[in-house]
């Protein structure tokens, strides 16, 4: 879903925000001349500027307002974000409970609502009611 929203373009600067162990690194590097992985707790430099920021399975765990404004501050005018996250559904809650994952999460409705307050959502896709992905522009 993420690479579909990136398309076939090659971007100059791409940030993988909340990258964890960087499982998407190799795939995201195919879409950028410069790839930067940033995980929560790493040193964040507000002088950074990126054409694309990918937030994969991140926004459900963070303070949405703070994180989205932080990302907006480092995103170039006309740049965009790609967000992917589990949806809050009976099926996803059942699955997470079955694996013992009881973390409190921001719902997909709350994530989408907050993103739309800061960015212009261009595309929104869902997958089997389990995941959603969106692309939103910084205008």
Describe it for me?
The structure is a single chain. The chain has helices at residues 2-6, 25-29, 64-74, 90-98, 108-118; strands spanning 11-17, 32-38, 50-56, 75-86, 120-127, 131-137. It is an alpha/beta fold and 139 residues long. Strand 5 (120-127) and strand 6 (131-137) form a beta hairpin. The two termini are 23 Å apart.
Topology as a string of helices (H) and strands (E): HEHEEHEHHEE
Rg result = 15 Å
Oligomer: single chain
For the sheet with most strands, the description reads: 6 strands, mixed
How much is the average pLDDT? Answer: 92
Structural class from helices and strands?
alpha/beta
Helix content: 25-40%
Biggest sheet strand order reads 2-1-3-4-6-5
Overall spatial form: globular
Parts with pLDDT < 50 across at least 5 consecutive residues = none
Distance between the termini: 23 Å
Beta content: 25-35%
Q: Quick recap of the structure?
A:
By secondary structure, the protein is an alpha/beta fold. The protein has 5 helices and 6 strands.
List the helices and strands and how they pair.
Blueprint: H1 2-6, E1 11-17, H2 25-29, E2 32-38, E3 50-56, H3 64-74, E4 75-86, H4 90-98, H5 108-118, E5 120-127, E6 131-137
Parallel strand pairs: 1-2, 1-3, 3-4
Antiparallel strand pairs: 4-6, 5-6
List keywords for this structure.
single chain; 139 residues; alpha/beta; 6-stranded mixed β-sheet; 5 helices; globular
């Amino acid at each position: 879903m993420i690479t579909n929203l990136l398309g076939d373009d090659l971007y100059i600067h791409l940030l993988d925000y909340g990258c964890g162990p960087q499982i998407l690194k190799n795939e995201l590097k195919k879409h950028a001349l410069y790839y930067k992985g940033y995980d929560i707790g790493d040193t964040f430099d507000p002088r950074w500027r990126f054409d694309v920021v990918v937030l994969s399975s991140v926004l459900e765990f963070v303070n949405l307002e703070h994180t989205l404004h932080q990302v907006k501050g480092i995103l170039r005018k006309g740049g965009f974000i790609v967000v992917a996250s589990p949806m809050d559904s009976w099926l996803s809650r059942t699955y997470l409970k079955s694996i013992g994952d009881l973390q409190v999460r921001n719902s997909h409705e709350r994530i989408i609502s907050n993103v739309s307050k800061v960015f212009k959502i261009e595309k929104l896709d869902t997958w089997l009611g389990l995941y959603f992905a969106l692309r939103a522009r910084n205008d």
